[in-house]
Amino acid sequence: MSGSPAGPVLVLLDHTADGMLRPAVLELLTLARGLAPDAVVEGAWVGGDPGPALGELGEQGLVSVHHLDVGVAEPHLTPVVAQALGALVTATGARLVLGVSSFENKEVAARLGVATGAGVVTDASGLELDDDGAAVADKTVFAGTWNTRCVVTAPVAVVLLKANAVQAEPASLVTSPAVVEHVVEIGELALRQTLVERTERAGSGRPELGAAQVVVVGGRGTNGDFGPVEALADLLGGAVGATRVATDEGWIAHDAQIGQTGVTVAPRLYIGAGVSGAVHHRGGMQSAGTIVAVNSDPEAPIFEIADLGIVGDLFVVLPQAIEELRRLRG
Amino acid sequence: MKIVVCVKHVPDIQSERTIGDDGRVVRDGGDGTLNELDENAIEAALVLAETHGGEVVVLTAGPADAVDAVRRGLQMGADEAVHVLDDALAGSDVFGTAAVLAAAIGLVEEEGPVDLVVTGMAALDGLTSMLPAALAAELGIAQLTLASAIDVVEGSDGTRVTVRRELDHATEVLSAMTPALVSVTDQANEPRYPNFKGIMAARKKAVTTFTLADLGIEPAAVGSSGSRTRVLSATARPARENRVLITDDGEAGRTLATYLVDNKLV
Ligand SMILES: Cc1cc2nc3c(=O)[nH]c(=O)nc-3n(C[C@H](O)[C@H](O)[C@H](O)COP(=O)(O)OP(=O)(O)OC[C@H]3O[C@@H](n4cnc5c(N)ncnc54)[C@H](O)[C@@H]3O)c2cc1C
Ligand SMILES: Nc1ncnc2c1ncn2[C@@H]1O[C@H](COP(=O)(O)O)[C@@H](O)[C@H]1O
């Protein structure tokens, strides 16, 4: 650390349909501010009106938000987002673009890379700038068994960070961000596909799985009864996750699936109940801070990575833990 | 309908996977395999060709033993196989790979237009999930990614492909006219196992090999020299220390509660 990037650091401001920031974006803004003493951080907002989020963005010390108006184009389509962002990179001379590591943003980053020659790192768990201002990112690979560091050698870097890479903190100076309007002409190539239908999932009332600090996961061992898993999650203020077996069985919605083909989580605390710890599942949770596993089979592979492993019946252990936690907390 | 399926040969995820001093995945372990999710891609293409008529070409870019990946595709029932093989490919990033695959698809097109390109949703080695979108952008065709269901309708004005996809916060239905790229998830289908007939038939099918020169791509544009990122260090993560394994003796739930409180996890 830490030369400064030429031009501003652009942060892609993922938001809900009604204009609220996704929580992980606050982590990106916190990280971006700390990259260099003189880092200029600017937001990129595609579609809709950024109005509802300006308060929260001001608490992050953001001075300006670029509002990318894509006209009649569908702002949820990743080729549209990529084109708008590409135009902004050119207009601002930004050399570093940050985003939350999601399936959509990986598509955006890929297209941005093709269009601008940018180099991309996805699923980063940390980011610094080297003496020349180049982005150096940390990333775990192979189901969380290897740590790697890589540097982006292209002139423009796009880095997608996993949730919980840093703790979100408010800025020391609260600002009132200026909204800079850009009208982007979306080209024919980005319009080759159409969005026929989009159904946003209603919030569960629990923290978002990908960003939660505590995740309690149920697998086949729950036999369809997620009661104890949900009760423990709620007591700990955590999210509920599942293995693919549990989602395939229809015991819980598909978006709860953690693993290589589902959500990647990196919470402070992961508790797996009736989860065997298949490599596909481990790929999505192995970088959790503390791993607790409850499984009746002493040979279950999840015990190889559990900080605390309990050989036992989840229907006995979880309710007892819940009762004891309530007692300890008074 | 002509369908090209892009498949990758990756280290078996059940095996001990390592990264060498050069920052690259060690691929000479001999336990490489067809990326599991690409079996879903092949299955999707075969079903479409069976339903709508047409042929399936499996395509890979990778070192010599990557030919196993396209061979597996032939065994499952693909009609043709193409392997881009060139020493200069080693260390390519997603953009190098996308440029190479796009050029190879261009050569395949010399024998007739390609209507669909199908890929897996992710290669279970790098797990970047970026190649499909990068390849669609390179080819300048529609991108229908992360399909858990695919529907193809042939009409008088062309062929329309519609997919359903599940994202972190929403479910979407995307649609486009061909030519288009579709990436499929493991929810899309149950891949078939090659049967005896398929395995015998595959033996008679040749694999076409292209070099970078055939594709008209400069070696320096791909491989490590063309890569836009460079691995600085790679270390196996140390095993977790102080791991505790207990067997429930009637107290484990309380032990768990105390553990969480003592370690300030609640
Ligand atoms: C291409 C591909 C992608 C995949 N992607 C994913 C993915 O993203 N995420 C994912 O999770 N899986 C994924 N899988 C599936 C994965 O391989 C495993 O099949 C799955 O993770 C196993 O789920 P499980 O642990 O719930 O079930 P099992 O492996 O059947 O384990 C159930 C465990 O519960 C224990 N148990 C039973 N009863 C009790 C009880 N009363 N109390 C305590 N323990 C009990 C058993 O001892 C057992 O260990 C994928 C598979 C493929 C092929
Ligand atoms: N070298 C390659 N050759 C052919 N297809 C590939 C290659 N690399 C990636 N793919 C395809 O792209 C998909 C996504 O890979 P990735 O973006 O690397 O996670 C895979 O499932 C394959 O279908």
Structure description:
The complex is a heterodimer of chains A (330) and B (266). Chain A is an alpha/beta fold. Chain A has helices at residues 23-33, 54-59, 78-92, 103-116, 227-235, 244-248, 279-282, 314-329; strands at residues 9-12, 41-46, 64-69, 96-100, 119-124, 126-129, 135-141, 146-152, 157-161, 178-183, 193-200, 214-218, 239-242, 269-273, 290-295, 308-311. Chain A has two domains: 9-191, Rossmann fold, CATH 3.40.50; 209-328, TPP-binding domain (Rossmann fold, 3-Layer(aba) Sandwich), CATH 3.40.50.1220. In chain A, the strands form three sheets. In chain A, strands 5-9-4-1-2-3-10 form a seven-stranded parallel sheet, sandwiched between helices. A five-stranded parallel sheet of chain A has the order 13-12-14-15-16. In chain A, strand 6 (126-129) and strand 7 form a beta hairpin. The model of chain B has no long low-confidence stretch (mean pLDDT 93). Chain B has 266 residues and is α/β, with parallel strands linked by helices. The longest helix of chain B is centred in the first third of the chain and has 17 residues, at 36-52. Chain B starts with a strand and ends with a helix. Chain B has a single domain (2-226), classed as 3-Layer(aba) Sandwich (Rossmann fold). The radius of gyration of chain B is 22 Å and the shape is globular. In chain B, strands 9-8-7-10-6-1-4-5-11 form a nine-stranded mixed sheet, sandwiched between helices. A two-stranded antiparallel ribbon of chain B has the order 2-3. The structure holds flavin-adenine dinucleotide (FAD) and adenosine monophosphate.
CATH architecture of chain B: 3-Layer(aba) Sandwich
Number of strands of chain A: 16
Q: What portion of the residues of chain B fall into strands of 2 or more residues? A: 25-35%
**Strand arrangement in the largest pleated sheet of chain A:** 5-9-4-1-2-3-10
What gap, in angstroms, lies between the N and C termini of chain A?
A: 46 Å
- The rounded Rg of chain A comes to 21 Å
